Amino acid sequence: MSRTITSLQAALQSLPDNAQEPVVDHLFASHLLNSLGFQTEEIHPQYSTGNGSVDKAARKTIGDDAFLHTKSNPYLLLELKGRDINLSQDAAQYQVTVEQIKRYLLAPNCTTVQWGIITNSCHIQLFRKHGKVIFPATKCISIDANNIDNVAAEIRQKIENTNKALTIAVYNNKGGVGKTTTTVNLAAILTFLGKKVLAVDFDPNQQDLTSSLGIPLSQGSVFEALTERNIDLLTTLYPYKFPLKKLHRELRFDVIPADQKLTDTPEHQLLSHLQSHTLYRKLEPAQQEYDYILIDSPPNWRIFSQLAVYAADVVLIPTKHNNLFSLENAAMAMKKFIPEVQSKKLDGSPIPLPIFFNGEKITDPQLKVAQQEINNILKDAKQEGFNLLPYFYPKYTKAKKDLHIHEVPSYANIAGSAFSRIPAVYRDISAHEYYKNLAKEYFLQ
Ligand SMILES: Nc1ncnc2c1ncn2[C@@H]1O[C@H](COP(=O)(O)OP(=O)(O)OP(=O)(O)O)[C@@H](O)[C@H]1O
Ligand SMILES: [Mg+2]
User: Fold this and answer.
1) In this structure, are strands 249-256 and 166-170 parallel, antiparallel, or unpaired?
2) How far is the CA of 374 from the centre of ligand 2 (A)?
3) What is the pTM of this model?
4) Would you say residue 406 has pLDDT above 90?
5) What domains are there in the chain, each with its CATH number?
6) What's the gap in Å between 47 CA and the centre of ligand 1?
7) Distance, CA of 114 to CA of 133 (rounded, Å)
8) Considering only CA atoms, which of 75, 59, 151 is closest in space to residue 113?
9) pLDDT category, 3, cuts 50, 70, 90?
10) What proportion of the chain, given as a percentage, has pLDDT over 90?
């Protein structure tokens, strides 16, 4: 049986082994973009991002607005390299190229961009941008004539069915660092800022999120929705509503409450009902409904945290500057737990977000001690082959040695609000500001 060669396969086969960037551009780039669904007038070469120029930008024609002519509202960026640049995942040039595409994705003329691709025609990787957050949507895939059509189809499928939501697991193995408080108040502030939010209480043993909002516990229906194929998890949600009387507005975010049956079922039985991907799969319909899905996890690395982290695009890790365990556990999540999940999940996600300090007053001498401890953690990690610097000091560069870590200060009205059943950000202007800053720091572009 003869097999016809697709133009994309032919393009790849025509490339010499040592093809440099102009050759990859000339022989491969437009075939790749065509196979991703973009026609010639939908592709702009050397697009000026406002922070350097990216090799290609693309967007489908809307009415008579062809991207090549109007240059408005780009949707996807493609950064090309030659085969002389090694884009395999642990190469230094790969890291540099990832930083480069991130810089373009966040540049002023790219606020509408949702997707970024890097390729040198030997490797390819797709990245998603949601607000300020950039995370992998595929692994860094090795490509050749045999798999290129499948890889292109997979990428096309993703970019044509963009998930609306960013899914965030709030996790630290250490207890009492503010996971639940962060989840509740982030959900509340993002709602206030006009986003559609779902919060999931996935800590059934403590049920803190559910009770801090005064929401009734689920009596088995979340358990059933998770374990039975035909039940939609969104049937179990409970709306949390808060009236803004002066503005004649009502705020609402949705909550999947903690479930008593999940609490009562012994872990060995849960393990036969729930798989790593269970929560991820069950949240798929919600991915198209919400802007943000926030999952509160328990303080251990057991079934509920594992499913929560698997379901997430990114993991937000609260810590305390004066609690060494909370910092060491953050590093442990980055070196061990999150990579474990990445290796099961196969799309490069989830990734950790940089840590923040939550809920303690910090004096300058204390900050110095914390930095010393963090430096030791970073040094140990480096010896084990991990570069955790970006997750502890995201603003640190060689040129600017910025050791600032974001803080949510200690504030009595944050602690007090669980009793009132109202998120602190709706009751208190300072709490409102603190969490707005957190949302801006991490998520909002
Ligand atoms: N910024 C803050 N200012 C003051 N109190 C805070 C702050 N953040 C959290 N707290 C308080 O600290 C305590 C622990 O917070 P929280 O329950 O959110 O932690 P957690 O990590 O979810 O705990 P667990 O590991 O038990 O689930 C709570 O009493 C909470 O009200
Ligand atoms: Mg909690």
Assistant:
1) unpaired
2) 24
3) 0.97
4) yes
5) 7-160 (3.90.1570), 166-442 (3.40.50.300)
6) 46
7) 10
8) 75
9) low
10) 93
